[in-house]
Amino acid sequence: MKSTVEEIRQRFDADVERFSNLETGQSARADVPLAMGLVAQAAAATTLNARLVLNVGCGAGNFSLKLLERLPNLDVTLIDLSQPLLDRAASRVGPATTGRVTIVQGDIREGEFLAGQFDMVLAAAVLHDLRTDQEWEAVFAAFHRALRPGGSVWIFDLVESSIPAISGVMRQRYGENLTRLKDEA
Ligand SMILES: C[S@@+](CC[C@H](N)C(=O)[O-])C[C@H]1O[C@@H](n2cnc3c(N)ncnc32)[C@H](O)[C@@H]1O
Q1: Does residue 81 lie in a domain region?
Q2: What is the reported pTM?
């Protein structure tokens, strides 16, 4: 059963510190720092002349910060449900870029972003909260409208395999990692 939007917002409002560590990423998944670094590296390598980036479900800004390590002159638009996380993201991302930082509190399923503007959309560990096919289609249509021609979308997230054995391995590793972290909260 997926959480309601209000439940998601409240959960993340109360969890700013856990999402503000670039070394661990969001920390619930052990593979996040590696995945985030690799995806940011690939995004930078393929879009060297990028200027405008849209980071949806930005949390405290980790994915933008990873990209800015390689492309430090970006204008970054940060969108999230959680105002405390957005405030933290702005205070971390601002000093990391020579460009402008814009924050927008809102739901990516309802947002209309500046059409045809962005070189890249970044989405880290947020799209798994989408529910219906209609929501997936609406969000990707909004990304498409937001991107300039030739722009790109960069995602890493929880992936649910339809193969039970693979799904079992992933869930076991995820559970072990959460157990290891249980005293952190
Ligand atoms: C697991 S955290 C990941 C944060 C960040 N991307 C990272 O990797 O560190 C998910 C983030 O997505 C945000 N979020 C979830 N659903 C959202 C929605 N519908 N619209 C905007 N933000 C959303 C949450 O508030 C939270 O900050």
Answers
A1: yes
A2: 0.89
